[in-house]
Amino acid sequence: MLNFTHIHQHKRLFSLALPMILSNITVPLLGLVDTAVIGHLPHSYYLGATAVGAMMITAISWLCGFLRMSTTGLAAQALGGENSEQNLLILLRGLAVAVAIGLIFIIGQQLYINASLVLSGASEQVQYYARQYSEIRIWGLPASLANLVILGWLLGNHKAKVVMWLLIATNVINLLLDLLFVVGFNWQVAGVAYASLVAEYFAVISGLIAIFYSHKSLVKRLKNETFVVLKKIITRSELASYFKLNRDILIRTLCLEITFIFITFQGARLGDNIVAANAILLNFLLLISFGLDGIANAAEAMVGKAKGENNQYKLQITVKVALIWTAIFAFIYSLFFLILGEQIIAIMSSITEVVDFAERYLVWIIVLPLIACWCFLFDGIYIGLMQANIMRNSMVIATFAVFFPTWFILQGFGNHGLWAAFSLFMLARGITLAWHYYRYVNTAQTLVSVVPEINSG
Asked: For 138-160, how does the pLDDT look when each residue is reduced to its tens digit (9 = 90+)?
């Protein structure tokens, strides 16, 4: 039974989650538009090249996902503890690290791109256009990584609506430029890359402006105490603590990256049509994950705030409420792709072979929401708790004890074996994280003697 307090938590979570769901799905929807635009060019290697090139760039952004995750968790806890100075330092330190990493990859871009293309094992045509794509997109990395920090900080401060409008505006710009550059100017793969590049710098400028206008007091403090603030950002002990925290998130994300890169590159080895079909299905997967991440993002902000307030009861109710909504949205996604999956694939590409392969493997997209939704939510919970070591351990187990052994055993089934391994990988993440969370709850209950009342915040 839900009492009034629980209903309040439902409303609070949904008020944060709905803007995040609406904004998050604009990212994979943009990917679907990219795929549809490129998928109607005459050869499948255009779509395959976009998939490989995009993976080479997004691999870096996903690997640096710790910038968003740690920023959200730390900012939420600073908000709960009412520590505005620490909140500001979290934002600025994250931005400094993001820009530095982006510049490092720009300087070493040829080494990175050459090595990635060799590992891809793709055909000559796919490699040619993938290089063209990645050599354009890599110049947007400083902005792309800075955006992770900005979005994470705004979410940690419960500014979900600001995040929503930023992402929607950015992706609409990207979409319009896609159509202009590819359809209007006939720039093909390069057009998609230039559209993303412009959108990334639009996003970072818009994000900084949004922070300036919504947090004028913090910006004023930065202006008045610039030297003191900068000194705190680059303090060796603070940077060491920051990277120690993010080390576990980095390892966790690296394992996730390995699986996605392996799927893309292994698909490329199976042929241009397979990698193109997988590109469509991976966009479906991103649509699922970004939508379910809306619930997880809301949960991590609320869990982080409850942790900062040292309110264990509020934390546990938040998780229970989030579990209910995660299950509901997972079921909706499965039903959606069961009913409309084939029609959407037909829109994505006019190449018969690509469409046939995508339809053949669509069953995995239908079952994945129900299998994978739990790992998305518990990732959010542990980000809020700032227990990155648990996320790391879960991901290492799922990658090296489940994904690769399963693929090795089932590789004779080709692409079906690849998707089966990935499905079990996602299931293993959810099981291990859920198991540890309930151990955490049982331990925490022995330490709580008084159940605090949930406040309206």
From this structure: 999 999 899 889 988 988 887 87
